[in-house]
Design goal:
The chain is an alpha/beta fold and about 290 residues long. It is built from 13 helices and 11 strands. Helix 1 crosses helix 2, helix 2 runs parallel beside helix 3 and helix 8 packs parallel to helix 13. This is UDP-N-acetylglucosamine 2-epimerase domain-containing protein.
């Protein structure tokens, strides 16, 4: 059954602390033998910490990924969660090697593959039935897809201005669909970057968008998993600072421009469709 902890937005410390407090109550009531945590968000670390402090074993799904960039909050969460977990379920062989180099015993490491890819393949046929193309008046490979949410890109005006200037130039050649994270949307307004978008769609008017032949950017509300997956599947290319989308585009064989200087998923570069472009307008435009 689902348990809602009632923890919303806040600083990293606030979120981590509140999840620990509320999740500890669940653990004391349910008395589980094992807690399974997934990914690299604040709740991943918080739940693992709460468990091991009560002498409950923890298992980390998506263990061993490393960007080697400790300015990323997710990197701190990954490192600490892996150090305190009893079972480390890795998505790739390079993740195994990362853990071994950090002194994790071999008997704790289990290469299981990528559950996000499993989910994608399981839901691909359902995503194909999505009506998002009709709603946005799009055609296969007739648009680029953009996501943007990392603090280093969104919270600094210079970085966000650089990225949006590149996106604006790209949009003169191909429409750009941009499902915007709420914090990103807030920063676009705060930095007066909304004029870079020719159309800002709210949930009630999204179907009224008419793509233009020149300089077309559509900022939409966050989309459902299946709607977004369909957009990923048929995009000409994807621009993102998300880790998971790097993997999804590789599996879908869709070109991906990652708006970061590092990645915890190097296999998407060595064996996939991913290119690191940072937030340099010149490099973004060249690779697009």
């Amino acid at each position: 059954r689902d348990v809602y902890l009632g923890v919303g937005s806040g600083t990293h410390a606030e979120q981590t602390g509140k999840v620990m407090i509320e999740f500890e109550k669940v653990l004391l009531k349910e008395k589980p033998d094992l807690v399974v945590v997934v990914g690299d968000v604040n709740s991943t670390l918080a739940a693992a910490l709460a468990a091991v402090k009560l002498h409950i074993s923890a298992a980390h799904v998506e263990a061993g990924l490393r960007s080697y960039d400790r300015t990323m909050p997710e990197e701190i969460n990954r490192l600490l969660t892996d150090q305190i977990s009893d079972y480390l379920f890795t998505p790739s062989r390079d993740a195994d090697e990362n853990l071994k180099r950090e002194g994790v015993p071999q008997e704790k490491i289990f290469f299981v593959g990528n559950v996000m890819v499993d989910s994608l393949l399981f839901n691909k046929a359902r995503a194909d039935q999505s009506q998002i193309f009709a709603q946005l008046k799009l055609a296969e490979e007739g648009y680029a897809l953009l996501t943007l949410h990392r603090p280093s890109n969104v919270d600094e005006k210079h970085s966000l201005t650089n990225i949006m200037s590149a996106i604006t130039e790209i949009s003169e050649s191909i429409p750009v669909v941009f499902p915007a994270h709420p914090r990103t949307r807030k920063k676009l307004r705060e930095f007066n970057l909304d004029p870079h978008a020719t159309v800002i769609a709210s949930p009630d008017v999204i179907g009224a968008w008419q793509p233009q032949s020149q300089s077309s950017i559509l900022i939409t509300p966050p989309l459902s998993y299946l709607d977004f997956l369909k957009l990923e599947m048929y995009a000409k290319f994807v621009m993102t600072d998300s880790g998971g989308i790097q993997e999804e585009t590789t599996v879908l064989n869709v070109p991906c421009l990652t708006l970061r200087d590092t990645t915890e998923r190097p296999i998407t570069i060595t064996q996939g469709t991913n290119v690191l472009v940072g937030n340099s307008p010149r490099k973004i435009i060249e690779e697009a």
